[in-house]
């Protein structure tokens, strides 16, 4: 029972991070029907920048809270700039191209970003500086650190903020209108290019937050970390129904839970044949399962032919 | 108010509009009629920049429109009700109307205009919070017209407002269009239903295979034997 609750908590933490990243995939898909496979790399860049800034300021005597805040602010700024630039130079020229072209470009962008990161930060694993408080509490026999509580709370706040932005503001209305029908939105006076840029920027800011969370939670960052994380967040977006904002949140949390429960019990289930390091297979079982049995996702409305 | 000279529109290699010239005066309602595929909708879509203009000039209040970014047309006072209505199906009626007023910032004025649209189409008010996708075709057409009015346009472009609607609904919609025009709005009406279009408008142009073949006052076009034979089924 202790393990069960512990794995639920771990799953919620992991799931919050997946959800933040999945939102980036789903928002871009919703607005321009494009799977931005480079999004995982934006998360990685966020993690790397945050880590570098925090390392730099580590011995400055600033309180931990400010260190994290500065790291996050730098990461968010860099990621937003990267997201904006990717759209401008890689996707915008292909707006009217056959749908396969931007998809291949997305993979290309992903490789370019990964290699850039390798040039800047090297091939080594970077350890997160030991600045974080190690206080933890026990709930029903399961342990959760204060960092993990913060991760779940901040992720929840950001998602609520995003929901308000999209459902209650003029800008959010313009985003939804563009996603439903770009040419009609343009007739209403919406500058489509601006809305698309904005979508990339918002998604990238969420990615920066997720990047810091991942590297802080696992105490590590690496130029290759965006690949698997991106694939899993993409799976989460598909699970919830790609293009659907609430779906990405639900899919992220569910995938986190499935993974961590799977990892917790896989040993028992297979009689010790597979261990918890096989946790990655669950995400892909989920992806295959969704694509075969419910391609529109849990709360997706329709399957676009672009998917 | 609107001066179109030598307008050309092409899809790939096919010319849908072959250099047409027409004009609309301030406060006028002008009908553009013709058979299916004559190029009427392409003309309208080019004016609203949903389609690229491949040649010619479109001058509106002395300004060249063809070089303006498409999303700035609304701010110039041009609104369009697209063919097939084009409402946002997953937004409520209220939100669709808000989108119509997207470029405006005067909250009080917007609220007043929304109430005005609700008096023109009381049906919309009853369903204000319903998603547009769940409305009937006629209600969607009302919404599309109401949405276009929300930007307080000077020039209203209407594309086939009668298409696919029951006769009673068509009548209701045209009553509103007529009322709006009577208050001084300039209207360009594209219609396949030539009789209806010529009855409500002052002047008309007849389009055939991408060219304007005939123009006159609407009343005289209605009486023109050629028009009667080709478009009024006599």
Report a brief summary of the structure.
The complex is a heterodimer of chains A (307) and B (234). Chain A is mainly alpha-helical.
General shape of chain A:
globular
User: What low-confidence regions of chain A span 5 or more consecutive residues with pLDDT below 50?
Assistant: 303-307
Based on Cα principal axes, name the global outline of chain B: globular
Oligomeric state of the chains? heterodimer
Order of helices and strands of chain A: HHHHEEEHHHHEHHH
Helicity range of chain B: 25-40%
Q: What is the residue-mean pLDDT of chain A, rounded to a whole number? A: 93
What does this structure look like?
- The complex is a heterodimer of chains A (307) and B (234).
- Chain A is mostly helical.
- Chain A has 11 helices and 4 strands; from the N terminus they run ααααβββααααβααα.
- Chain A has helices at residues 2-32, 39-57, 64-91, 100-121, 146-168, 170-180, 182-187, 192-218, 225-240, 245-269, 280-293, and strands at 126-127, 136-139, 142-145, 220-221.
- In chain A, α2 runs parallel beside α4 (100-121) and α9 (225-240) packs parallel to α11.
- Chain A is globular and about 60 Å long.
- Residues 303-307 of chain A have low confidence and may be disordered.
- Chain B is 36% helix and 27% strand.
- Chain B is globular.
- Chain B has one domain (25-49, 74-231): 3-Layer(aba) Sandwich (Rossmann fold).
Give the secondary structure arrangement, pairings included.
The complex is a heterodimer of chains A (307) and B (234).
Chain A: H1 2-32, H2 39-57, H3 64-91, H4 100-121, E1 126-127, E2 136-139, E3 142-145, H5 146-168, H6 170-180, H7 182-187, H8 192-218, E4 220-221, H9 225-240, H10 245-269, H11 280-293
Antiparallel strand pairs in A: 1-4, 2-3
Chain B: E1 2-11, E2 14-24, E3 29-34, H1 40-47, E4 55-60, E5 63-64, E6 78-81, H2 93-100, H3 107-120, H4 122-126, H5 137-149, E7 155-159, H6 167-182, E8 186-191, H7 194-200, E9 203-208, E10 211-217, H8 218-223, H9 225-231
Parallel strand pairs in B: 3-8, 3-9, 6-7, 7-8
Antiparallel strand pairs in B: 1-2, 1-4, 4-5, 9-10
Helix pairs in contact in B: 2-5
């Amino acid at each position: 029972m202790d393990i069960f609750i512990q794995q639920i908590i771990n799953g919620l933490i992991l799931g919050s991070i997946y959800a933040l990243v999945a939102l980036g995939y789903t928002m871009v898909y919703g607005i321009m029907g494009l799977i931005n496979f480079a999004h995982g790399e934006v998360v990685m860049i966020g993690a790397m920048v945050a880590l570098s800034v925090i390392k730099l300021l580590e011995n400055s005597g600033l309180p931990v809270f400010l260190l994290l805040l500065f790291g996050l602010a730098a990461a968010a700024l860099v990621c937003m700039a990267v997201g904006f630039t990717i759209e401008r130079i890689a996707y915008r020229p292909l707006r009217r191209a056959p749908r396969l072209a931007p998809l291949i470009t997305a993979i290309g962008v992903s490789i370019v970003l990964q290699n850039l990161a390798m040039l800047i930060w090297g091939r080594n694993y970077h350890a997160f500086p030991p600045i974080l408080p190690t206080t933890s509490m026990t709930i029903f026999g399961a342990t959760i650190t204060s960092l993990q509580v913060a991760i779940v709370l901040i992720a929840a706040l950001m998602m609520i903020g995003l929901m308000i932005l999209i459902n209650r503001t003029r800008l959010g209305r313009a985003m939804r209108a563009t996603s439903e029908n770009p040419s009609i939105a343009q007739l209403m006076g919406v500058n489509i290019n601006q809305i698309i840029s904005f979508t990339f920027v918002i998604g990238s800011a969420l990615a920066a937050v997720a990047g810091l969370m991942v590297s802080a939670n696992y105490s590590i960052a690496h130029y290759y970390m965006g690949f698997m994380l991106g694939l899993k967040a993409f799976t989460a977006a598909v699970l919830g129904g790609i293009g659907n904002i609430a779906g990405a949140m639900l899919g992220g949390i569910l995938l986190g839970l499935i993974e961590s429960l799977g990892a917790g019990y896989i040993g028992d289930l297979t009689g010790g044949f597979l261990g918890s390091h096989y946790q990655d297979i669950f995400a892909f079982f989920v992806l295959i399962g969704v694509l075969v049995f419910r391609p529109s996702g849990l709360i997706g409305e329709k399957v676009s032919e672009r998917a | 108010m609107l001066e179109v000279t030598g307008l050309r529109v092409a899809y790939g290699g096919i010319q849908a509009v072959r250099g047409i010239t027409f004009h609309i005066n301030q406060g006028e309602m002008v009908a553009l009629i013709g058979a299916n595929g004559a190029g009427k909708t392409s003309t309208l879509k080019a004016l609203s920049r949903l389609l690229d203009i491949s040649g010619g000039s479109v001058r509106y209040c002395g300004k060249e429109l063809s070089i303006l970014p498409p999303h700035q047309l609304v701010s110039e006072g041009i609104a369009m009700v697209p063919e097939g209505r084009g409402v946002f199906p997953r937004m409520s009626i209220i939100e669709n109307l808000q989108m119509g007023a997207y470029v405006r910032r005067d909250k009080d004025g917007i609220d007043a205009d929304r109430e005005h649209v609700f008096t023109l189409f009381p049906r919309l008010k009853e369903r204000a919070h319903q998603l547009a996708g769940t409305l009937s075709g006629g209600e969607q057409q009302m919404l599309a017209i109401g949405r276009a009015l929300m930007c307080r346009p000077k020039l209203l472009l209407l594309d086939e407002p009668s298409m696919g609607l029951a006769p009673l609904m068509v009548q209701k919609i045209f009553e509103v269009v007529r009322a709006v025009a009577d208050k001084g709005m300039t209207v360009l009406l594209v219609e396949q239903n030539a009789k209806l279009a010529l009855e409500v408008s002052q002047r008309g142009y007849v389009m055939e295979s991408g060219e304007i073949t005939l123009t006159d006052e609407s009343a005289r076009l209605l009486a023109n034997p050629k028009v009667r034979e080709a478009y009024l089924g006599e």
